[in-house]
């Protein structure tokens, strides 16, 4: 029970990696707030998990929603120890054609969302003196250059810098900030990409382990960063990518 008496928020937890992170954190003894823009799906996800799983509807790209979420958690639990900024979206398109709307949408969720919630959660973590751990779900695409997902690549590159800057800024205020960089993980987001045979072949052939990862394999890295096992780790992005980055 590595997270006994801890309170965690996991965003984008209605499905995929976020759901697995919530599931593992619950098994490790935490109270877990599953936050997602898809209200019905997140309510169903929390009901499925049971126990100390609590569903909250939240669009992380909106400041008021992020503030409200942290306020609710503090009102209900009195402390907030772990934040996993996992919510993310992907839009594809040629770099010369991709719309302003798509660019703003991806940056709004993947980067600004993590910033807004880290700020709201960071304030209470600093004030409560027991500190906290913030984990950002980055991607190997923070470092790779894939032409048809420019906003996504830019958002994850920015997220790595957000992680490092916040880690340094909060290092003496008791809050650690780290990231997980998944490679190709078998979730709905990736299944859509892998429907295309060429994309499927490319993904598998460029992954030295020759397989996609599972959401649970990412959740275990997040658990390490959330727990005291990583008490001297901050400002790091741990890549779990089957060797993709070499
Ligand atoms: P997914 O598409 O299965 O789930 C994403 C969840 O985020 C959904 O439940 C969705 O409703 C929620 N969401 C979307 N916009 C939101 C918003 N504005 N506010 C709150 N929630 C919102 O995605 P998956 O695959 O589980 O990915 C999770 C994270 O991991 C993302 O940040 C993604 O970029 C990252 N990642 C995923 C990889 C993969 O291969 N699946 C690889 C590398 C990174």
UniProtKB/TrEMBL annotation:
GO terms for molecular function: glucose 1-dehydrogenase [NAD(P)+] activity; quinone binding. Its EC number is 1.1.1.47. One of its GO terms (biological process) is fatty acid biosynthetic process. InterPro entries: NAD(P)-bd_dom_sf, Sc_DH/Rdtase_CS, SDR_fam. Pfam families: adh_short_C2. Keywords: Oxidoreductase. It comes from the Bacteria. Belongs to the short-chain dehydrogenases/reductases (SDR) family. NCBIfam families: PRK07231.1. PANTHER family: 3-OXOACYL-[ACYL-CARRIER-PROTEIN] REDUCTASE, SHORT-CHAIN DEHYDROGENASES/REDUCTASES FAMILY MEMBER. This is Glucose 1-dehydrogenase.
